[in-house]
Design goal:
alpha+beta; Pdz3 Domain; 2-enoyl-CoA Hydratase, Chain A, domain 1; seven-stranded antiparallel beta sheet; six-stranded mixed beta sheet; 13 helices; 25% strand
């Protein structure tokens, strides 16, 4: 599936962005050695969401290609130029660039190098420099799946070196390493003598991690743990809802606690599987930079809309037609996961259980160095690609200001003293949802004896790990 959008590209740049009387050929030619820098500036000048806030991206900043190149020569390192042309990280936390676009393409497909341990890193109680890791779940078919390691295991060191905010990246980047395990004893990490050696390999993760039907109190409840909006696995997601539908499920608990996002299109499809009664209605809207927003509104405003749908290609979507959904979240729940929550709220009741989400209300697109910034015809001289933020997403009520995260209906934290087994009715998060479904009302949610603070997790450590991306708006492709 194509993951980039069709683009206005150099046509727009040549037609209006350089207000000079130079020859068209001069505007489009690029001096040797500046191909990457030229690609970076023109791509961001066209698509970057915060273009208006970066003076060096202004349409009238350079009178000619020669003036632009004089500026670009001041940035021999392409990454320095990319960073210079971004707004402050307090606003843009997510745009990035890679020197090899295959990194992004693999992540789109759910492929990464992994030993199979999905983990979180937290600060040690009372410290701002020392961290420890805990296992959230194990990927099937991985090296870890063959070892004695499971959800809830704590590791304080790697290869005997205690983890800190300064060394965790280097230690965890190794292809093979040994986790040194500990017990979480009232907030104290006590080494227990256990260690597990793990080796990474290319692994494709099916984001449909757990699907099951729970019969309780006369209710048939679907439980789905879904860990990534990976478009290549949309058929498997639809199959899971097909099983729920065939079983007569009338309630759904959607577990997005470790889901850091992905495809906007998949988000709309998931929302359509949960509902079904809103086919063709607005799920969410895209807001671009002023130049592109004006272009869309004039030429094809329908391309700004992401609607509820009833099919995936030629296959019908399996919809449950629910008017309420229970969604489990943590501080690792991001982007497309948040889009589902925000997009559903104008239509049905969303009961959110857990912690405040990340707060990623913006999306990106892959830009290649090609005549139209798409994948086809990309440069053979280098493999640089950008993943800049290009849109903000808002719902049918025009709300999208959740950059500080979405606050849960019922606040609950995962507790190392009682993590439970994912998918089991006694697991604390799921149990809270089941209690509400059974009509038990809001019961007191226990607070962990020791509250720990998150630092990083498997996905936030990975390039593109928490991104939300869009596919092809057809009117740009026709431009």
């Amino acid at each position: 599936m194509k993951k980039t959008i069709g683009f206005l590209g150099l046509f727009l740049l040549a037609a209006g962005f350089f207000q000079s009387c130079e020859d068209q050929d001069d505007k489009l030619s690029v001096s040797a050695g500046l191909e990457v820098q030229n690609f970076i500036w023109k791509g961001l000048n066209t698509y970057y969401l915060w273009k208006e806030d970066v003076p060096d991206l202004a349409d009238d900043r350079f009178a000619s290609q020669k003036d632009l190149e004089a500026f670009l020569r001041g940035y021999p390192d392409p990454f320095d130029l990319f960073d210079h042309l971004r707004v402050n990280e307090s606003i843009d936390r997510f745009s990035f660039m890679v020197s090899d676009y295959s990194q992004v393409e693999n992540l789109f497909a759910g492929v990464s190098k992994s030993n199979g341990v999905d983990f979180g890193l937290k600060y040690r109680p009372g410290s701002t420099t020392d961290v420890f890791g805990w296992v959230r779940y194990i990927l099937p078919g991985s090296d870890a799946a063959t070892k004695d390691i499971r959800r809830g295991d704590i590791f304080y060191a790697i290869d005997g070196t205690p983890l800190t905010v300064s060394n965790y990246q280097q230690l965890l980047a190794q292809d093979t390493y040994t986790l040194n395990l500990a017990d979480f004893d009232g907030g104290n990490l006590t080494p227990n003598g256990r260690s597990i050696t793990l080796t990474k390999a290319q692994l494709t993760e099916n984001p449909v991690y757990i699907k099951k039907v729970i019969e309780q109190g006369g209710n048939k409840i679907g439980y789905l743990m879904y860990n990534g909006f990976t478009a290549d696995f949309d058929p498997q997601l639809n199959d899971a809802f097909g099983e729920f539908k065939a079983a007569g499920v009338t309630h759904l608990v959607l577990d997005l606690r470790y889901n850091s996002g992905g495809s906007v299109r998949t988000a709309s499809r998931l929302a359509s599987m949960i509902t079904g009664q809103f086919n063709g209605e607005l799920f969410s809207k895209q807001q671009w930079n002023p130049d592109l927003q004006a272009y869309f509104e004039e030429n094809n405003p329908s391309d700004l809309a992401v609607n509820f749908v009833n099919s995936i290609g030629s296959s019908g979507i399996n919809s449950l037609n629910l008017n309420k959904v229970y969604i489990l979240t943590t501080k690792s729940t991001a982007s497309a996961s948040e889009l589902v929550i925000n997009g559903l709220k104008p239509y049905i009741t969303v009961v959110q259980i857990g912690d405040v989400t990340v707060g990623k209300n913006v999306g990106s697109v892959t830009l290649y160095d090609s005549p139209d910034f798409g994948r086809d015809g990309r440069s053979t001289k280098h493999k640089y690609a950008m993943q800049p933020i290009v849109i903000k997403m808002i719902n049918a009520d025009d709300f999208g200001d959740y950059q500080d995260g979405i606050t849960p209906t019922i606040a609950q934290l995962e507790d190392f003293d009682n993590l439970g087994t994912l998918g089991e009715t006694t697991e604390p998060y799921l149990n809270t949802a089941l209690t509400l479904i059974a009509g038990g009302g809001r019961r007191p949610v226990p607070t962990p004896a020791v509250v720990t603070h998150p630092f990083r997790d498997t996905r936030s450590m990975r390039r593109f790990g928490t991104d939300m991306y869009i596919e092809t708006p057809t009117s740009l492709g026709r431009r």
